[in-house]
Amino acid sequence: MDKLYWQSLDHYKDLKEQSNPDKVKPEPEFSIEGLDESEIKGKSSRRDFLKMLGFSVSAVALVSSCQMPVRKAIPLLNQPSDLIPGVPNFYASTFYDGNDYCSILVKTRESRPIKIEGNDLSKITKGGTNARTQASVLNLYDDARLKNPRLGKVDSDWETIDRDVLNKLQDARESGKKVVLLTPTIISPSTRQLINEFISEYPNISWIQRDTINYSAMRKANELNFGQRIIPNYHFDKADTIVSFNADFLGNWLLPVAFTKQFSTKRKLTDQNKELNRLYQFESNLSLTGSNADYRFTIKPSEESAVLLNLYNEIARATGANTFLAPVTTIDVSKAANDLIASKGKSIVVSGTNNLNIQLIVNAINHLLGNYGKTIDTTKPIHLNQADEADMQQLVKDMNAGKISGLLVYNTNPAYDEADTESFVNGLGKVAFKVSFAETLDETAELCDFVCTTHNFLETWDDAQPIEGSFSFTQPTIRPIFNTRQFQDNLIKWMGLDMDYASYMEQHWKSMLSQHEEVMGNFTDNWNKLKHDGVFQHEEDDSAQATFTEQALKATEPLAEGIELALYEKISMGTGKYANNPWLLEMPDPITTATWDNYVCVPIDLAEEKSLKYEDVVLVNGAFELPVIVQPGQASGTVSIALGYGRISAGMAGNGVGKNAYPLLHTKNGFTNNTGTVVTIEKVAGKTYELAATQIHHNMEDRPIVRETTLEKFKENPISGNEQHIIDEKNNVTLYSKVDYDGIHWGMTIDLTSCTGCANCVIACQAENNVPVIGKDQVRKRRIMHWMRIDRYYSADPENPEVHHMPVMCQHCDNAPCENVCPVAATNHSDEGLNQMAYNRCIGTRYCINNCPYKVRRFNWYEFANNNKFDYNMNSELGKLVLNPDVIVRQRGVVEKCSLCVQRLQSKKLEAKRENRALVDGEVQTACSQSCPTNAIHFGNLKDENSVVVQDNKSDRMYHLLEQLHTLPSTSYLTKVRNKES
């Protein structure tokens, strides 16, 4: 290949030095831990092999002949009409935790929630999910959840809690002492009404909303420009040109699931559509959005306002508008400006920076381009992130001044994630009575007098309005597991109302629906339909966009010296709310591929200056130590650290993992920002810290795995970038006879142009197929068990590389190399094209793993279930409730891999058989294809000429991994196309 693709800087240096790969000593395919020297050197004799094989086979025979333990089951005396053992039920619900929003379907088995899917009826998320949504089902079965309400440091009962809290509230009301209710942004109309009624009952209570990541500057800018303190709704599906400044809208910014759905609709190439949108990303650290950009620019945080104002001036000069004095920068914005001008009314400019001047410039650019009312809608604003951080700052001052008598804290954890944690904790100590409404004993709950233990969201009733006019509903999918109570029920109880929140919400909606003609009629029927669908869309005539009022624009001079910090949220960990979720802890980061830790990402030039290399330890601001990753694409003069780590009261899995970077948030002019803090980075001599990254587990070996082209070349020649496919097809010969399938041949296609590398599919697969968590030490030994992985490759300039995301799972080859070498026929081929694994037949020789060119088979080195050494979700009785009963939990010594969710295939086939019909294309979905927010993964029958997978396979962009080996995979890929100049 002419273009170099590399996975790490060391790999890049080797390629540049043109080292001979034949002389490079290969890493051992399997761990050598516990092997003697002769085994490591491969000098075992044939006699030793036969001896070991004989022992293995006899041992397996002995074990298999053991009597199975007796398991007793008690049948239901009165079986509920909607519960059939072995048949799943689905409930429409909503995932909203104060930060993330997604409309979902919850799959339950025997009344146990086991899997989250996206709700196709939602006009916002449209059936998509992200990794944190997928993993949220595991939080229900978290052993760190509180089992009872707490009084002080001990468990109590609700009667005692109600009596004592009610006395405190009434005393404060009668004496006029100030009490504050502190919550995250509440997007539930029913809860907002209830809180207002609660405050009417207790007039001395004030309500403050607090966001972990603040967007106050955006709301303030819109208040100045439009007279409304809002966040407008963005329509990325209507934009041909997108320019983003530090806004990771495909990963964490505002509504990433919805935005990813929208963005991906303009990343679909077909015979009818040969156009793509174009994405420019200006950022400090390499984000998921930046990795998918057509053009990416590295900037320091202090440069952002200057670059933006120069971009504004370019557009203003072309459109005849006034310009403003802007500092000179080295960043060339002319190309982005020209594309924006050419896409007037079909473009979007956004910034994720919580800076008022920056947000005013962004609004002015969008106004010049005529985007309001077209790609940006102020009439149906986003209701997330409503907090005004000035309120929280004032609360901390008032607490320290002794002005606050009581504090009620719901679903927020400022003792951990406030910028000035010390001031908050000191102030909290001066508050007379403190009540926490929390699921777990988090850092804030530990400091409270009362902990009113709350339900998990899968046990609750609620509603949500994420965008004006768009509603969704939350309903219980399981009875409360512990002695917990919903937050809203506490307010109702303390108001003296004789009802529960479910009845309250129903009354609220009865009043609401009476105002909408489209749902007038029998309320019970309408209400049941809303709960069944999980969503309600109130369509109104589009009102006029608010009038834009111009503001003076200004930019600051970029800093000439100092190392600037960019804090960010990992796709897995987010703000750290679910730091005890082992699925998320072990999920490889899409950019660094690291698991289980946060670290300092440093640019190449800084690493050379300070002699830093991978896993060296640095002292950050003299406060704490973190390991180093030398990160391609990190802006010069900056470093970045992930938030959400360093929890001390998360639970067994999350405690003490990484370091808490929230104290490094940058506060200026009343706005708290993730970027802008100037830090010192000092190498700790002689000290290293082991990281567990997965990309180094596999090497591309200079083979054409990633294939790409540009849109310009693709239009000229649709085979562009995929020329090797023609050569391989022409030269392929085989001794195998062709397999002839009768009726069904399952296959999958993955469109690399659509795939963003979000790893949502990895967690979806883990939840569906009972994939174990193995811990950091085992990951370092290359034993990670995920059935599918997202390989990340770099190309071009290491200072600012192009990034390629490559989902890889079992390719289900028709000429599968693994099948020939298994001595006990544990791996075999089905008559529907599946490469199957008979787990109870496998004796763990691992020949199949060694013979697989894709390295997608996994080996259970240990018993990961019921093993105290791997105390994650498969060890406790509570944690095991999340396991899918349709998929066996594998044992030690067994090989496992992707099965294309064979349990789903069988279920749908039986359903079609009962209904005496053929399967419909798209009816059967694997966990990865169903959850993919970009619809990059298609699954179906390769024998159905009308199926989507067949149409994909007819594309000129279609190729197979390592197709020169002629393994004939049933999984194919579509060449990645970037919308940039050749």
What attributes does this structure have?
Dimethylsulfoxide Reductase, domain 2, 4 domains, Rossmann fold, 27% helix, alpha/beta, Barwin-like endoglucanases, 982 residues, 29 helices, single chain, 7-stranded mixed sheet
Structure description:
There is one protein chain. The chain is an alpha/beta fold and 982 residues long. It has four domains: 76-209 and 401-467 and 476-533, Rossmann fold (3-Layer(aba) Sandwich), CATH 3.40.50.740; 216-382, Dimethylsulfoxide Reductase, domain 2 (3-Layer(aba) Sandwich); 563-693, Barwin-like endoglucanases; 697-978, Alpha-Beta Plaits (2-Layer Sandwich). 27% of the residues lie in helices and 20% in strands. The chain contains 29 helices and 43 strands. It has a seven-stranded mixed sheet with strand order 6-5-17-16-15-7-8, with helices on both faces. Strands 29-21-26-23-25-24-30 form a seven-stranded mixed sheet. Helix 4 runs parallel beside helix 23 (760-769), helix 6 packs parallel to helix 16 (487-495) and helix 10 (304-319) crosses helix 11 (334-342). It is globular, with a radius of gyration of 29 Å. The model is unreliable at 20-26 and 55-67 (pLDDT under 50).
